[in-house]
């Protein structure tokens, strides 16, 4: 896929760029997704291209929140699938297996391409092959979310509609807000701490998607091994999102201030 040598200082970033371009060419990623990715790269630069301390704390709280959830759902779009399909499958496997495809630029053609990408692709994630995943949102998006006029409001009854916790990587703001208004806990992954999604979500992990999904999965496995009570998990899941976002803004401000 990539001609970039591993020794290149920006190897990971260029690899992700390659994945996004490839997904666009195969019809999985929306044209707008290319722009969204560029915006993400900019913010990643500003946070120093590594997981901020505030994101580590958000990951821990999110892991506990997801473990406490009765019906957690991972919402995916073109960008998140292009960048981290296998990692998202591994994460879902540690939960109830539910992944819901929810597209802003929804077309039947894109939905089918995405379904095929999950079903047959060269990496053949074992967890997907072993039927540990329930892929929702393609044939069963029959429910309409209140206050979301565009196609992103079409959701699955078994998935986002009845979910108590929804993980939303790379989201556009109005749906995150509408999910919170429906009484759900929303965990966002968004490199832009100023975005409406980041500001409105219950927990925002300000980190790059491919970097933080494995950390989140690892944290869930960690917490499971500790056999904590629901009360203990509840305590870990308490999170002051505004404070965490301010910490990231301070980090950015420090990073761009020269002596
Ligand atoms: O696949 P579709 O049709 O659902 O379309 C998806 C896009 C991404 C086009 C749509 O949701 C959109 O326009 O998103 P926005 O409003 O551009 O928001 C995307 C957010 O994700 C921005 O705040 C970016 O900074 C952030 N972002 C981009 N790449 C990453 C990221 N955050 C984490 N990791 C990334 N790799």
TrEMBL record:
Keywords for the protein's UniProt record, in alphabetical order: ATP-binding, Coenzyme A biosynthesis, Ligase, Nucleotide-binding
Q: Which domain of life is it from?
A: Archaea
GO biological process: what's one of them? Answer: coenzyme A biosynthetic process
**Residue ranges of the TM segments:** none
Q: What is this protein called?
A: 4-phosphopantoate--beta-alanine ligase
The record's listing under InterPro entries reads: Leu-rich_rpt, PPS/PS, PPS/PS_sf
The enzyme class is ligase
NCBIfam families per the record?
A: phpantohe_syn_Arch, PRK13761.1
Q: What does this protein do?
A: Catalyzes the condensation of (R)-4-phosphopantoate and beta-alanine to 4'-phosphopantothenate in the CoA biosynthesis pathway.
């Amino acid at each position: 896929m990539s001609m970039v040598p591993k020794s290149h200082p920006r190897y990971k970033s260029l690899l992700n760029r390659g994945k996004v371009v490839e997904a666009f060419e195969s019809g999985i990623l929306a044209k707008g997704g290319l722009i969204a990715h560029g915006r993400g790269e900019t913010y990643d630069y500003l946070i120093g291209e590594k997981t901020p301390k505030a994101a580590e704390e958000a990951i821990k709280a999110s892991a506990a929140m997801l473990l406490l959830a009765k019906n957690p759902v991972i919402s995916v779009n073109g960008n998140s699938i292009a960048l981290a399909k296998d990692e998202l499958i591994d994460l879902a496997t540690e939960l109830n297996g539910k992944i819901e495809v929810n597209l802003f630029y929804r077309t039947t053609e894109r939905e089918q391409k995405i379904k095929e990408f999950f079903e047959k692709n060269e990496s053949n994630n074992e967890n997907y092959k072993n039927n540990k995943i329930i892929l929702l949102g393609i044939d069963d998006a029959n429910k309409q979310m209140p206050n979301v006029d565009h196609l992103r409001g079409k959701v699955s009854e078994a998935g986002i509609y009845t979910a108590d916790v929804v993980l939303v990587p790379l989201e556009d703001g109005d749906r995150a807000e509408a999910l919170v208004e429906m009484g759900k806990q929303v965990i966002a992954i968004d490199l832009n701490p100023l975005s409406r999604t980041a500001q409105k979500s219950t927990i925002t992990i300000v980190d790059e998607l491919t970097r933080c999904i494995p950390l989140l999965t690892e944290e869930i496995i960690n917490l499971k091994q500790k056999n904590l009570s629901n009360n203990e998990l509840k305590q870990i899941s308490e999170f002051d999102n505004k404070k965490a976002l301010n910490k990231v803004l301070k980090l950015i401000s420090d990073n761009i201030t020269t002596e």
